[in-house]
Design goal:
- The complex is a heterodimer.
- Chain A is of the alpha/beta class.
- Chain A has 4 domains: 4-224, Pyruvate-ferredoxin oxidoreductase, PFOR, domain III (Pyruvate-ferredoxin Oxidoreductase, domain 3), CATH 3.40.920; 237-422, Rossmann fold; 429-499, no CATH class; 505-610, Rossmann fold (3-Layer(aba) Sandwich).
- Helix content of chain A is 36%, strand content 22%.
- Chain A is built from 21 helices and 23 strands.
- A 7-stranded mixed β-sheet of chain A has the order 11-10-12-13-15-14-21, sandwiched between helices. A 6-stranded mixed β-sheet of chain A has the order 3-4-2-5-6-7, with helices on both faces. In chain A, strands 18-20-19-22-23 form a 5-stranded mixed β-sheet, sandwiched between helices.
- In chain A, helix 18 links the parallel strand 19 (511-518) and strand 20.
- The radius of gyration of chain A is 26 Å and the shape is globular.
- The two termini of chain A are 49 Å apart.
- Chain B has a domain at 6-212: Rossmann fold (3-Layer(aba) Sandwich), CATH 3.40.50.970.
- The longest helix of chain B has 19 residues, at 23-41.
- Chain B starts with 22 loop residues before the first helix and ends with a strand.
- Chain B has helices at residues 23-41, 76-86, 98-104, 106-115, 160-166, 180-192, 214-217, 219-225, 277-285, 306-320, 326-330; strands spanning 48-52, 67-70, 91-97, 119-125, 171-176, 197-202, 226-229, 236-237, 243-248, 251-256, 293-300, 336-338.
- Chain B is built from 11 helices and 12 strands.
- In chain B, helix 5 (160-166) runs antiparallel to helix 9.
- By secondary structure, chain B is α/β, with parallel strands linked by helices.
- The chains are: A alpha/beta, B alpha/beta.
- The interface between A and B is large, with 69 and 56 residues.
Chain lengths: 611, 339
């Protein structure tokens, strides 16, 4: 059988195996290779919380999905064209994601009686049992072939088995006409210094996998995916967590305030702390605190001392930080708190994505305690979102909540590298000698912003704290003073509406239906809206990066439409927020709380239903 | 270098502690110690920051004419850590109570001590919750009758000294509120010390725990029931200066000079700078009536402070790195050009 070469517009591959099979690495290597080749792409790691769950069970299946194409790619894709299943459990958990035309690449060595039983199959015919007989199933003895490939390498069997993922990477590279030189180069960089003995064996396995796929007659088609027409420039791949860390470094450079990060490790936010810990050479100081509370409190201390202070966490950690965030609101110190949201409540499903912390960041503090809330909408956008959150915190003397999501934090996309000269200056409202004796809570009458003086500056000595006080900073429990200070702190947040960008609409400014979203759902919703439009129906879309305050023109935009469909990965937090802020509109909701991103298909259905 | 007097550190705020509260004396000692501290350590007033948590003693920053941060319950140590790491040039002083530092803030306290952050912690220990009006604290004696333990507590207390030394603390001192002179001395040493200096001040609460430390603090018997330790001096105490401490096997023992052939030469000499935690721990653990309660600086050893180590590491990696700015960083690693 001679295989056909087909030009494809876009392709989705899902690599799935045991959590120790190296699927995250395989997937991200394939993604990097495609990015360098010039494709648009989006990735989605979907892995269990257990580092090594029981071998061969469905609870231990780790997956990594790559969507790449020659045109705009905005989501990691709903369903896949190729599923790589390293064991029966991986096939079982992922069969539901197969397109009708999909190909499945299976390591048949793992499909023995014991393997099938561990995965919970009732029969010895998993293909029929899963009703996927109509797909192209390629059984390849990947374990045996890897052993054969490395029989003269001198490596022990355990190490040999760790190279299985490279065999599949070689096969996938053949199927999608990817040059394997990039992988060879990567292996040289990764192992060259510390484990030079692993370089050649891994390179050999990749090549053998590639050649094996080319020689067997089982693969009916191979594909070419032309490079995308990307904007000219220098590119890199970036994850959301990395982009947030770098956005803070950028804000630190622009403001001249040293960066301080006080954090406690928590999935899926830890990557930000890890990333900042690397970049001490840009002046960043990181404190891995003894707990979440110490994370935010060390940051508040650093802010008082004059740093750009940040703390990074996920939902449960944010709950622990609540009281201290009230202190930051009360002392009016600049601080950015990042919440990389995960499925809750409580410990929930740590590695799965959700948008269920919106109510927590909006309301989760004692007393009258509003905070600015910004949400990032893609892995690369995390850079700008972190920069803007820092700029607002520093220029407006307030804590700012920056919402990310597990989906963004671990997901990646190619990013056209910006130049720092194109970013705005950050100018904190410093107090000067003329402000002595310093009245710390005296405000700018327009922005309500107080001035910032920090220890070391002569004549500006002052005290801050969690107790209510007057403009001079003198403690006060006077009823009228308390109410005035409460109103001024709230007004300071509300007045941000004057400086944040206005809401933009994709599509007409008026019509039957406006779809609304916020955060990391942008790619999915936009794809769905465009699909519906291609079907000839008129629908518009508005995406909110700024949640508190809402953009100034929000009411005006909403007023142009008969119905508003709010799509979010929670039970309706943002819909409720809009109902309270912009009442009187016909709000509809599309919600999903499964620890998974939306599928474009389910959004299309929801939009059609709402039209 | 500005010359200061104690008045320079008094703020215009009215001190609102109860008359007779031990906190007044500790505040006075701090304000009186600071001119000498500033002179010796070359610290201008604007580089002093006083941090506190919540509780009676945590009102202290308002009474000091310096930069100050009155934070939230238990968190002073974490906030001090952030301030000191952000700007190691600042002198950070912290006021906190036994409930604040050892109950709700216990975690931050032991970790600051473990890290050896260069902050000076004055731990006001009155063995009671005062601001909430009289509940037992983690230092209340076993059986203490308070509003939340009407039949007596059933939990043993912390000894702050053991806690600090258990975390391998580098500086621990203990004193009584009324020992003004000794307290100034301790504060000066704490300021000199590069690392976490914990000063346990045994203070009286006239309202909710009057006589909290009277067993050892009564003037008539104080000399017999306490021992003031000074580095390099013999461990001698008593009204007649004739009692002393010796090692009897692996335990400390109180002896009388002139009895059973004991001479002054037999008495231990206090070595606060010794790395050996064993003897320091035994001294910190001494309880009346078996032993005199140890006052003064029990331990003061040198070790690199956390903030200095952070600073050093930043300098080391900066010197080695080829990445000088964010533009460099964005272009580092794997990048590709789209033409």
């Amino acid at each position: 059988m001679q295989h056909k070469v087909i030009d494809a517009k876009d392709v989705v591959i899902r690599f799935a195996g045991d959590s120790g099979d190296g699927m995250q690495l395989t997937g991200s290597l394939f993604a990097d290779m495609s990015a360098i080749y010039g494709n648009e792409l989006s990735t989605f790691p979907d892995y269990p919380a257990e580092i090594r769950a029981p071998h061969g069970t469905v609870s231990g299946v780790s997956g990594f999905q790559v969507h790449f194409g020659s045109d705009k790619v905005t989501t990691p894709g709903d369903f896949c064209d190729l599923l790589v299943a390293m064991n029966p459990a991986a096939l079982k958990t992922n069969a539901k994601w197969l397109k009708r035309t999909a190909m499945v690449l299976i390591d048949e060595d793992t499909f023995d009686e014991a393997g099938l039983k561990r995965a919970g199959f009732a029969t010895d015919d998993p293909i029929t049992e899963l009703k996927i007989e109509d797909r192209t199933i390629v059984f390849a003895p990947i374990t045996t072939l890897t052993e054969e490939s490395l029989k003269d390498s001198g490596l022990d069997l355990k190490t040999v088995h760790k190279c299985k993922n490279m065999f599949t990477l070689g096969m996938a590279s053949f199927i999608y006409s990817r040059p394997i030189e990039y992988i060879h180069g990567y292996l040289e960089r990764k192992f060259g210094r510390k484990h030079p003995e692993l370089v050649e064996p891994n390179k050999k396995v990749v090549s053998d996998g590639y050649n094996y796929a080319a020689n067997i007659q089982a693969i009916p088609n191979t594909y070419t995916i032309a490079p995308a027409h990307l904007k000219k420039g220098l590119y890199r791949n970036i994850t959301g967590n990395q982009a947030i860390a770098w956005g803070f470094l950028a804000a630190s450079e622009k403001s001249g305030r040293p960066l301080f990060c006080g954090s406690y490790p928590i999935t899926p936010a830890t990557g930000i702390l890890e990333e900042l810990a690397i970049h001490k050479y840009l002046g960043a100081k990181t404190v891995q605190a003894e707990d979440e509370i110490a994370g935010v409190c060390t940051a508040i201390g650093a802010a008082y001392a004059g740093d750009l202070a940040v703390t990074t966490t996920s939902g449960p950690g944010l709950s622990l930080k609540s009281e201290a965030l009230g202190l930051a609101v009360m002392t009016e110190l600049p601080l950015v708190v990042v919440d990389v949201q995960r499925a809750g409540p409580s410990t929930g499903i740590p590695t799965k994505t959700e948008q269920t912390d919106l109510n927590q960041v909006l309301y989760g503090r004692n007393g009258e305690c509003p905070m600015a809330v910004i949400a990032a909408h893609s892995p690369a956008h995390c850079f700008d979102a972190a920069f803007m959150a820092s700029k607002i915190a520093l220029e407006h003397m307030m804590p700012v909540s920056l919402l990310s999501e597990g989906f963004l934090g671990n997901g990646s996309e190619p990013w056209c590298i910006p130049s720092m000269k194109d970013y705005p200056e950050i100018r904190p409202p410093y107090a000067t000698a003329a402000d002595s004796p310093f009245r710390p809570f005296e405000r700018n009458s327009e922005t309500m912003v107080r001035k910032w003086a920090f220890p070391g500056e002569k004549g500006l000595e002052h005290r801050v704290g969690g107790l209510e006080k007057n403009h001079a900073g003198v403690l006060s429990s006077d009823p009228a003073t308390h109410e005035l200070m409460v109103k001024e702190r709230a007004l300071k947040v509300a007045r941000l509406a004057d400086i944040i960008p206005e809401l933009e609409v994709d599509g007409s400014l008026s019509g039957k239906l406006l779809v609304v979203g916020w955060g990391g759902t942008l790619g999915h919703i936009l794809s769905a809206v465009h699909q519906v439009r291609e079907m000839g129906r008129e629908v518009s879309y508005a995406h909110f990066d700024y949640i508190n305050p809402l953009p100034k023109n929000t009411e005006e935009i909403l007023s142009g439409f008969d119905r508003i469909l709010v799509c979010e990965l929670n039970s309706g937090h943002f819909a409720d927020w809009l109902r309270a802020r912009c009442p009187g509109h016909a709000y509809l909701q599309c919600n999903k709380v499964q620890g998974q991103p939306f599928l474009v298909q389910e959004l299309v259905e929801a939009i059609e239903k709402a039209l | 270098m500005t010359k200061y007097t104690f008045k320079d550190f008094k703020s215009d705020q009215e001190v609102r502690w109860c008359p007779g509260c031990g906190d007044h004396a500790v505040l006075a000692a701090l304000q009186r110690a600071l001119p000498a501290i500033c002179e010796e350590t070359g610290t201008e007033k604007e580089n002093l920051v006083v941090v506190s948590g919540i509780g009676c003693s945590s009102r202290l920053p308002y009474y000091m004419d310096t930069y100050g941060f009155h934070s939230i319950h238990g968190r002073a140590t974490a906030i001090s850590t952030g301030i000191k790491v952000a700007n190691p040039g600042l002198a950070v002083w912290q006021a906190c109570g036994d409930g604040d530092a050892l109950a709700i803030g216990g975690n931050h306290f032991i970790h600051a001590v473990r890290r050896n952050v260069d902050i000076n912690i004055i731990l006001f220990n009155n063995r009671i919750y005062g601001l909430t009006k009289g509940q037992y604290s983690p230092t209340s004696k076993l059986g203490a009758i308070t509003k939340t333990s009407p039949y007596g507590t059933v939990e043993p207390p912390f000894n702050p000294g053991s806690l600090v030394l258990g975390a391998k603390g580098t500086f621990f001192a203990r004193s009584l509120d009324s020992e003004l002179k000794l307290n100034e001395e301790i504060m000066l040493e704490a300021a000199r010390h590069k690392g976490t200096s914990v000063m346990e001040m045994l203070v009286n609460c006239v309202i909710f725990n009057d006589g909290a430390h009277s067993v050892i603090s009564d003037r008539a018997t104080r000399a017999d029931r306490t021992i003031i330790l000074r580095h390099g001096e013999k461990m001698i105490f008593g009204k007649d200066r004739n009692k002393g401490l010796v090692l009897d096997g692996l335990r400390l023992k109180v002896v009388t000079i002139g009895e059973d052939g004991v001479t002054e030469d037999d008495i231990l000499t206090h070595d606060a700078h010794s790395d050996n935690l064993g003897l320091h721990t035994m001294l910190a653990d001494m309880k009346y009536p078996e032993y005199p309660v140890a006052l003064g600086i029990i331990r003061s050893v040198e070790a690199e402070s956390y903030d200095a180590a952070v600073e050093r590491q930043v300098e080391e990696v900066t010197a080695k790195s080829g990445i000088r700015c964010v533009d460099d960083l964005l272009r580092s690693g794997t990048v590709w050009e789209v033409k």
